[in-house]
Amino acid sequence: MIFCSFVTMSNILRQHIEKIVPLTDEEFGIVLSHFKTRKLKKHQFLVQEGDTAHAHFDNFVISGLLKVYHTSDDGQEHILQFAPQDWWVADYQACSVSGPAVVNISCLEASELLSISFENRERLCDQFHKLEHFFRKKLNGGFLAQQRRILSMLNKNAKERYEQFLSLYPGLSQRLSKTLIASYLGVSRETLSRLSG
Amino acid sequence: MIFCSFVTMSNILRQHIEKIVPLTDEEFGIVLSHFKTRKLKKHQFLVQEGDTAHAHFDNFVISGLLKVYHTSDDGQEHILQFAPQDWWVADYQACSVSGPAVVNISCLEASELLSISFENRERLCDQFHKLEHFFRKKLNGGFLAQQRRILSMLNKNAKERYEQFLSLYPGLSQRLSKTLIASYLGVSRETLSRLSG
DNA sequence: CGCGCGATTGAGTAATTTCAAATCTAGTGG
DNA sequence: CCACTAGATTTGAAATTACTCAATCGCGCG
Q1: B132 touches chain A (CB under 8 A)
Q2: If you count Cβ atoms within 10 Å of the first and of the last residue's Cβ in chain B, which end, N or C, has fewer?
Q3: Is the pLDDT of residue B110 over 60?
């Protein structure tokens, strides 16, 4: 695993934002100053259920892969989201309620992030209309993805959902164990195994 | 069914927005000028799958009740959202892709709406930072609700999902047939019937 | 080789669906 | 007031789907 330099990470973030809103050098400098870099190893936690500090609230993934999940009383993991490079990942629940985290976020691969606290993100949105626009557009994309997922859970059986997952995220499926995909799709790993053949 | 006057409808919208961002009279006047009122009867469609016009893209429900749903090939309805008074309802998919509508939206009760076109909404967001903020916050709430719903589909069995629905939306459940609730929860109406007893 | 981990397979069980029939309920007209 | 109808709900029974638990397989690695 090769790590990026700070300059490289900054450039990746800038390009990502500028797909939606253009920024001057000065503006981007200010934006960037609100972020911190983080490097996490495989299996390390970004957020654990019950955490009360939101210093690393919203996270842009430069490299690596994370999972957002909830553990039910019987110990089963239910995956809400995978977050590969170029995605944002957060405990979105904690943001509005600003109580303790209700989900876990951990690394499936060693990962590099640019993290921003909840307060800093809101400050940026206040200060730069452009950034409020950027975050709204991003959120809109996430909303649509979730809506599609809900529809596929209402609509499709396990096999169809699996095929849809493979075609939606072809690169991702190779980096995930079938067990992980199963707990994203909402089926047992045994059932998924019987489907693939 | 008693209809509201235009002034009453305006006030409801203003109060709704001002829960998040304060507005001057002048600002609200401009905002309001981007909306149109609509009255729809029970069973009438706001959006039908395949519609290409987005003149009534985003809709604030003053009174009544609507459902957003998708019909699968075998004719089954799958409900993505119910929209009672004080909620927003849109074919969110159509907004980003701006292609034809992929869902149906129809009235379960006679309804009064304040509708805004996609273009007008984006114009408002451009013109007033406050409104971009407002819509981001609203979207965030919707995102969280969807995330909770996904989790409950991964997490809970039919009975638990039903009980959660009843406790989350106590007022709504009385206005909905069990068939409708079933197709929101993703179970057959027969199964839901067996659970309630 | 032998260990560990993920994936697969088998068998029995539980939950849900499907299709059909019966019941209930609200509204209508005689 | 009563009969009648349409729609929604409930119930029954068989079929399907997915789950659980246990055993086995396959593979990379020390």
Answers
A1: yes
A2: C
A3: yes
Q: Indicate if the pLDDT at residue A58 is higher than 90.
A: yes
Question: In whole angstroms, what is the distance from residue B38 CA to residue A10 CA?
Answer: 47
Buried b (16+ CB within 10 A) or exposed e, B77-114: bbbbbbbbbebbbbbbbbbeeeeebbbbbbbbbbbbbb
Q: Could you say which of A70, A136, A148 has the minimum Cβ distance to residue B139?
A: A136
- Locate A84 and state its tokens: 């590969």
Distance, CA of B189 to C1' of C20, in Å: 15
DSSP A81-126: EEEETT-EEE-HHHHHH-SS--SEEEEEEEEEEEEE-HHHHHHHHH
Residue B98: what pLDDT?
66
pLDDT reading at B197 higher than 80: no
Q: How far is CA A36 from the centre of its chain?
A: 17
Contact with chain B for residue A80, Cβ under 8 A = yes
A197 has pLDDT over 70: no
What nucleotides of chain D have any atom within 7 angstroms of a protein Cβ? Answer: 8-13, 17-22
- pLDDT value of position A156: 92
The residues with which A36 forms a beta bridge, in sequence order, are A115
Q: Is the Cα dihedral B89, B94, B98, B100 positive or negative? A: negative
As a whole number, mean pLDDT of residues B73-83 equals 93
